[in-house]
Design the sequence.
């Protein structure tokens, strides 16, 4: 991860600015592939769910929040923040809810237990996202886990080079940055295979290009790959024979 104590500076000695960007989270922006197709179909099946609980499990940047946004747009679901769980349980009803990062340690166990019970009783649709499987959620008693095990669980991941390439292009598009397909192929062939790494590389390449006042070139891509591998204690070895000319 890029540290705030280590400013990113280009070869010309210019510091990259931190520029905000808004990810595109509409249904049409979701990248459907083998690793997330079943979860995506589950969201589209609403309101025809036969049971109230759905859990989407996946690593950071794998599309869990994007699926939650699609579900909210389709169902009118509202987010249930940690301090709202008890009130939502007491008020009852069957209005759909979303609980993101349920395994983050932010949610008080008793309040969550009450909400899960209420959702089961009233058949209130509840979409939960998590990084870990239900059995690994950090709760002290079996009360929450016994309810959560009744959920329909979907694992999401990016499974192949095509999806990784599509994700790179999408994240650059979110930043209004166009990138040569050859650069995308160059990066995908050399990067660590994870969605979180895609997001980190896009951010790093964008900031390097801003510092250099340049487009995204093979040189910038190589510098970003080398820096990321150095941060993991690995040595970067480029593969000859490709060019961004």
Sequence:
């Amino acid at each position: 991860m890029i540290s705030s104590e280590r400013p990113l500076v280009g070869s010309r000695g210019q510091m990259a600015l931190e520029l905000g960007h808004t990810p595109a989270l509409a249904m049409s922006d979701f990248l459907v592939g083998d690793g997330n197709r079943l979860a995506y179909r589950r969201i589209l099946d609403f309101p025809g769910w036969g049971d109230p609980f759905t859990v989407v499990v996946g690593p950071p940047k794998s599309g869990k929040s994007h699926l939650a946004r699609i579900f909210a747009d389709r169902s009118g679901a509202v987010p249930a923040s940690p301090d709202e769980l008890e009130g939502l349980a007491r008020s009852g009803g069957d209005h759909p809810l979303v609980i993101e990062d349920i395994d983050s340690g932010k949610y008080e166990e008793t309040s969550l237990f009450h909400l899960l019970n209420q959702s089961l009783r009233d058949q209130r649709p509840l979409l939960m996202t998590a990084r870990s499987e239900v059995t690994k959620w950090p709760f002290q008693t079996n009360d929450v886990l016994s309810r959560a095990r009744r959920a329909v669980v979907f694992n999401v991941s990016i499974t192949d080079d095509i999806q990784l390439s599509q994700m790179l292009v999408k994240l650059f598009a979110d930043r209004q940055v166009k990138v040569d397909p050859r650069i995308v192929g160059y990066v995908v062939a050399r990067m660590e295979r994870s969605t979180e790494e895609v997001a980190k590389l896009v951010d790093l390449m964008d900031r390097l290009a801003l510092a250099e006042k340049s487009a995204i070139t093979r040189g910038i891509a190589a510098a970003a790959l080398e820096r990321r591998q150095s941060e993991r204690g690995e040595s970067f070895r480029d593969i000859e024979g490709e060019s961004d000319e």
About this structure: The domain at 161-231 is CATH 1.10.8.60 (Helicase, Ruva Protein; domain 3). The radius of gyration is 21 Å. The chain has nine helices and five strands.
